[in-house]
Amino acid sequence: MKKRSDFMRMIITLLFSLSIINAVYASEVLEFIIEYENQEFTIRSYNVLNGEVDVPVRGEYKLTLFNSKGNEIYSTNFDIPLYIDVPPDPITGESYQIRLSKGAKVLRVPLFQDIKAIQIGPQYFDFRFIPFASPVPAPNTEVIYGNCLGSSCFDLLFVSDGYSDMNQFKTDAAVIANFFGTIEPYRSNPDRMRIIRVDNTTPLGCYNNCSGIQRLICCDSSKVFSAVSGLDYDEILIITNMNEYGGSGYIDGTSCADRSTYAVTFRDTSYYAREVAVHETGHSFGGLWDEYEYVEDGSGDGPNCVHDSTCAKWKGVAGTGCYAGCSYNGMYRPTENSCLMRTLTPDGGYKFCPVCKNEIDSKLKRCFSSSCIPNCANKECGDDGCGGNCGGCSNVPADYCLNSTTLRDYNGTGSCQNYKCVYNYTDKTCPYGCLNGKCQSCTPDCTNKECGDDGCGGSCGNCNNIPADYCLDMQTLRDYSPYGNCNNYKCVYPYTDKKCDYLCEQNRCVSKPVDAGTDVSIYDAETIKDIQTQKDTDTPRDTKYDVDYTDIEVRYDVYKDTVGTSSDEVTSGCSCNVIY
């Protein structure tokens, strides 16, 4: 089993608090235990451990991680197991499924150093206030079935609940594990699986008469997952110290990496405890459906239950047929009475039907590898050949000076290419020199400076505040250039003193006034528009042209090819007269 030392937990926690960079550790993951009750989520705790990130699924809910800058750095979808199987009545065979209002989810995501907040649906959680799963003495564990080696085995944990005598638990667990070893396909895959006994002493909150059903045993899922946090596993069977018949199993699909389902059985191995254990893990691990009737309608098909009355799904599979009655109304099963998913006492001995056996066998071969020897020779990172990892590229080199003016700046992340770590960098020019792996800096100084360099490559200002033109006297206009210049840190604005033909008035040169009866066709369009504007606004006298407009009519004779869309767009191609 893969466990982290208390010392490493302390180091990782310290790195989280520093939040130096946003690196991802390929061989380490964050494990969240998420509670769900009445449509509300609570993140009960998190842990840091070696392992793999959960494979993304098309789940109903979404978890998103944000860094301290508020940027999204990771997201994944997930589901909360809420449907639980009621074990078959040992006498009548009656059984069904119910939906609980409370559940829990174990979710493993990449380990980032800079995590500020977590969002699930509309709810936000500050990462700083999520409890860290405090290190506790690891429970004693022992492999009691299977000979798989490496990290790609199907690890099924047998976890004790309520046992004060661990020797009794060891005996009960061994009997159930040996029974698994007689059932196909577990019997044929010892090199792909390990049944691991976990001597747990923490109460898991298990009780019978759950939801008013005496034989239904429910446990506190958060306590279950907390008890095995830090252990690598793929499925859990809780053996609770109850003599009364009972059990349960959360319904799973066919995902390879869903650690949020588990099965429960009672301890009396002389009275169906073994059979209940295999039946309920058929649900929680194999995703199998019950082959007895619920007497209710349901949609969809399962691996071993179909609505098709011809049962084409398993046509040609030896030892199968098409028999009415399988979970929901109108469904069909593969065998009449020869499967542990239909009865705890199958015809012909304890076994799964061929369809159920093939379904579990397919998952074992699809999701898990047989015994394998990891190989990391000459590998800095990447796959070890057995589903494990030869290391992550988190040892980012320190920045350093290539020369006196150039800094090699590493971006804080690495990638694995051909089993070698590659670290991206940028070579930056240092205007004030490079020393001890850093660009040197300076303090900007704009004292007594209107413009120009601030001494650090910046600016003390631009000379864009151009003064307005003005009249020096009645015939001279000071006309400023539209551009200013910086000279010795002072703004200089060039200008020209222009002699006006007539007068300098109101900060501009004006022309000679228009006499009454004067032909104004000599004026340009702008002047004529000015005269028209003066008339239209009933201005009695124009100081620019010294003309009284009280009784003046301006008549425009405009050529068609020189007129715009309005009277203001008159061009110079017209003849105009001022008439009394």
Feature tags:
single chain; 580 residues; 8-stranded mixed β-sheet; 4-stranded antiparallel β-sheet; 13% helix; disordered C terminus
Can you describe what's shown?
The protein is an alpha+beta fold and 580 residues long. Among the domains are: 6-129, no CATH class; 292-334, no CATH class; 400-439, no CATH class; 514-579, no CATH class. It is 13% helix and 31% strand. It is built from six helices and 33 strands. It has helices spanning 6-18, 166-180, 221-227, 273-284, 354-367, 525-536, and strands at 24-37, 40-50, 61-66, 72-78, 83-86, 96-99, 102-112, 117-120, 123-126, 140-145, 154-161, 193-199, 235-240, 247-250, 262-265, 323-326, 328-333, 400-403, 406-417, 420-429, 434-435, 438-439, 470-473, 476-480, 485-487, 490-492, 495-499, 503-505, 508-510, 541-542, 547-548, 553-558, 574-579. A hairpin with a 2-residue loop joins strand 8 (117-120) and strand 9 (123-126). Helix 2 (166-180) crosses helix 4. The longest helix has 15 residues, at 166-180. Residues 1-26 and 533-580 have low confidence and may be disordered.
